[in-house]
């Protein structure tokens, strides 16, 4: 949640207005190629240690522009920012900085002042008081850009500014967090990347019941319950009926007469039949699998700091209140990503950066990341809050929250480690970029 402005370059701008001809002599001092990690800035056409520029006879209406090149030799994008700090000057109110216009542009597009809204050097000082300074633009990895600093002495300026001067530092830097951040979240799982959380697939946590009734003789009944591959239960019911028929006949008391020839009369005794039916017991064969809950959601952490950070016993909590402990003693190097999922089966669907650390939790993140809205809270082993966010209809962290994304998309920070603690730090990413 903490953030810091890391200095890339400090230069000094000295603007002095002459006594007689209303002329100013601005000087950028202390030019040198300084670097921050794999980033550096160079003022165009100026040797190390030489003034950035010296201008004589700057009259009302004159404009002077100097260019600075920013180079990112790393693979991670950076958000470039600038600050201006007044360090000295001569003259009482109205001070010189209140009349000088300033414009900072990139590739002909005004980023500060000009068409982006008129600004004076005094405004530049005031806006620079923000912790993040004045944000300029995102510089992609292995890329470079240049910024033009233009100062104008307006034609309308009068003699009130004679014999006045202003001296200030210009600091060009990048905005990074001072702690591990939740960098990217993938919760809208599409069919090409596995299965969404059971809740979002409409699979409840209750029991499933099936009843077989009115079986006929010799019937075989099969029930297959297939809950989106969450678990497969098969039950087979075999009903076999066996009838055994036994007959007993008693013809006791029989007599016969006239059996010497001719007609014979036979008188039989009584007869009886006994029928016995035996049914075999119905046999039920069942098999219940123990296949685990399938969920291919994931989140990405990023270490923007200069230190190796141990994630041992760190926790992740969602809006269900279920706390998941990061297992083992994973250590995240400076500039490294960590990918957290239920298990490593998630990564058969992705071509993630192999340098990223994969952390299987063994269980899904919380009760699954809700498609309508959820929150994520990252805490260290002592329970200290490290980072948090919310999206969709969950306004507990950000209000407004991060906007919902479309199926198959993620949301990700504008640049890795960029953290101003607002939803605007994130944007929808399609395709997602796990591990980079």
UniProtKB/TrEMBL annotation:
A Pfam family the protein falls into: LTD
LTD domain ranges (all copies): 267-393
Superkingdom of the source species: Bacteria
Protein's recorded name: LTD domain-containing protein
Lineage: Bacteria, Candidatus Curtissiibacteriota
């Amino acid at each position: 949640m903490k953030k810091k402005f890391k200095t890339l370059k400090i230069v000094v701008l000295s603007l002095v207005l002459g006594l007689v001809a209303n002329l100013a002599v601005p000087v950028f001092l202390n030019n040198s190629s300084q670097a921050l990690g794999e980033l550096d800035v160079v003022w165009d056409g100026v040797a190390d240690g030489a003034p950035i520029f010296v201008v004589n006879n700057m009259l009302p209406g004159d404009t002077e522009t100097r260019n600075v090149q920013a180079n990112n030799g790393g693979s991670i994008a950076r958000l470039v920012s600038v600050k201006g700090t007044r360090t000295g000057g001569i003259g009482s109110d109205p001070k010189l900085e209140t009349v000088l216009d300033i414009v900072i542009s990139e590739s002909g597009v005004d980023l500060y002042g000009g068409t982006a809204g008129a600004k004076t050097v005094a405004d530049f000082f005031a806006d620079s008081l923000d912790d993040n300074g004045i944000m300029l633009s995102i510089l992609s990895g292995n890329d470079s850009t240049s910024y033009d600093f233009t100062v104008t002495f307006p034609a309308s300026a009068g003699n009130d500014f004679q014999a006045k001067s202003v001296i200030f530092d210009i600091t060009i830097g990048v905005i990074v967090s001072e702690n591990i951040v939740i960098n990217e979240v993938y919760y809208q799982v599409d069919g090409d990347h596995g299965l969404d959380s059971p809740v979002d697939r409409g699979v409840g946590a209750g029991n499933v019941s099936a009843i077989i009734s009115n079986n006929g003789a010799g019937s075989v009944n099969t029930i297959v319950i297939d809950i989106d591959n969450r678990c497969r239960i098969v039950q087979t019911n075999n009903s076999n009926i066996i009838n055994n028929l036994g007959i007993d006949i008693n013809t006791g008391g029989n007599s016969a007469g006239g059996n010497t020839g001719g007609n014979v009369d036979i008188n039989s005794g009584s007869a009886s039949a006994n029928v016995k039916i035996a049914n075999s017991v119905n046999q039920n064969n069942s098999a219940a699998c123990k296949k685990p809950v399938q969920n291919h959601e994931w989140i990405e952490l990023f270490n923007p700091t200069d230190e190796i950070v141990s994630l041992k016993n760190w926790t992740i909590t969602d809006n269900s209140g279920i706390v998941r402990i990061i297992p083992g003693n994973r250590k995240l190097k400076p500039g490294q990503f960590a990918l957290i999922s239920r298990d490593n089966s998630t990564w058969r669907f992705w071509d993630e950066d192999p340098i990223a650390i994969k952390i299987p939790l063994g269980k899904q993140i919380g009760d699954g990341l809700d498609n309508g809205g959820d929150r994520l809270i990252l805490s260290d082993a002592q329970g200290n809050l490290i980072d948090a966010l919310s999206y969709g209809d969950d306004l507990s962290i950000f209000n407004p929250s991060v906007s919902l994304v479309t199926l198959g998309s993620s949301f990700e920070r504008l640049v890795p480690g960029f953290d101003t603690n607002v939803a605007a730090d994130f944007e929808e990413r399609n395709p997602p970029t796990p591990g980079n």
